[in-house]
Design brief:
The protein is mainly alpha-helical and about 80 residues long. It is built from three helices and two strands; from the N terminus they run H-H-H-E-E. It has a two-stranded antiparallel sheet with strand order 1-2.
Length: about 80
């Protein structure tokens, strides 16, 4: 799927906001390396348990950061999409 210019700008703005809203000392992690490790465990090593463990750790760390910056899901949103309070 090709991203429109409008979508690309929105995504770039979102990425910038996300990076600026989380203090560096809170978000010291190499996300691409985490994704590679999950992929390697799942596909290269066929280690389902390790892949599940890495994925759970990655999701928990992301959740911890979102909670730290005050992310609260909207309760009236049918899609369950949250926003920063």
């Amino acid at each position: 799927m090709v991203m429109s210019s409008e979508d690309a700008l929105r995504n770039a703005g979102h990425q910038l906001y996300r990076r600026l809203s989380v203090p560096e000392e809170v978000n010291k992690r190499d996300i691409p390396a985490q994704h590679r490790a999950i992929l390697d465990a799942a596909l290269a090593a066929h280690d389902e348990d390790k892949a599940a463990e890495l994925l759970a750790m990655h999701i928990q760390r992301t959740t911890d950061i979102l909670l730290y910056v005050g992310f609260e899901p909207k309760t009236d949103d049918a899609a369950g999409v949250g926003e920063v309070a």
